[in-house]
Amino acid sequence: MEAFDTILFLSVFLFSLAISLLIIVPLTGAVVRLRANYNPKGLQLDPEGNVEPHTGPIVTSFFGMLRRVKRLEGWAGLYKGLMPTLLATAFLSVFAVMALDATNPSIHGRVDLPTTSPLESMLYGLVYLIVSLPAIIITDRAITTPYKLPSFSPIKALRVLLTPTERRKPWILYATPGLFVAEVLHIVYVAFILGTLRIWLVPAPGEDQSRFETFHPVKFSIFIIIQTLSVTIMCPLEVMSTKLAIQRNHAVPEYNSVEQEAEDAITDYADLEEYSPDEEVIGLRSEKDPYLGFIDCFKRIVDEEGWKTLYRAWWITMLGLISQALGAAAQTVAPTP
């Protein structure tokens, strides 16, 4: 009987995971592409002072990017990043349940941590970040690469997604300028700041309290408003994280070093087809002039692309924040088993 229950549980889990991936991967891919697209306001200069042409298509909406991906890359393009997402989700789900005692692991680097104090949740999140950061980088790069990566040849795919320096020193992924800072700020804001406000405004009932006794509509309304306004902080962090994650690390961030590694990597993808050889889905910032850190990334995005770039797909972030608030309320008033 126990064996049957185990098989049934695994079957239901795998089926729900498959359905989730079929829905989430195309949507996540559109968000990543929209936020990664480099679309400067005017002409830019390369490191040698020459004028660079306009980079990146002008796509300003989530659904516009979704249609563009479908038109240029087809259904296969919509599911770019499926394999790393699947592998990362499986591994991180097991890690979250076994190591972090999480109850509801989810897709693409997100996890519902155990209900604890804000400080403990923040520490859980930091540990989870250390484990998941390479997966986030690889997945975002798999989504934005123009090449058709082999699904069942991970070594070949990684040779395309990672630079020779990153393959020799994989720990350098954690030193990607500004990325770790952006992710840590994201965790601190969600787990510590919003977590503290949640305890004050939407507290869980005590042992001798009714589930409705601690729920106050006014306080919950304030929490909803705070969660909604948090998009002004969360969305820029998510946009910057995406742009920094796809920025590849080279031995030395100088022109000659980047050129040399680019030449060495030509053989890695010489036999790979491109999804859309005639027209790129998105434009990427030149690796010869990388972001130097978190602050530099913020300033350059505002100066080169405009502040509105920091709020691409803002409504998706806002819906996520509101759903978290509703989830907190549901847990508060849910009947005890």
Plain-language structure description:
By secondary structure, the chain is mainly alpha-helical. The protein has one domain: Mitochondrial carrier fold. Helices cover 61% and strands 2% of the residues. It is built from twelve helices and four strands, in the order αββααββααααααααα. A hairpin with a 5-residue loop joins strand 1 and strand 2. Helix 1 packs across helix 2. The longest helix is centred in the first third of the chain and has 35 residues, at 2-36. The radius of gyration is 22 Å and the shape is globular. The model has no long low-confidence stretch (mean pLDDT 82).
**CATH topology, which one?**
Mitochondrial carrier fold
Number of helices: 12
What is the helix content? 55-70%
Widest sheet, order of strands = 1-2
Secondary-structure element string: HEEHHEEHHHHHHHHH
Summed up, the domain count is: 1
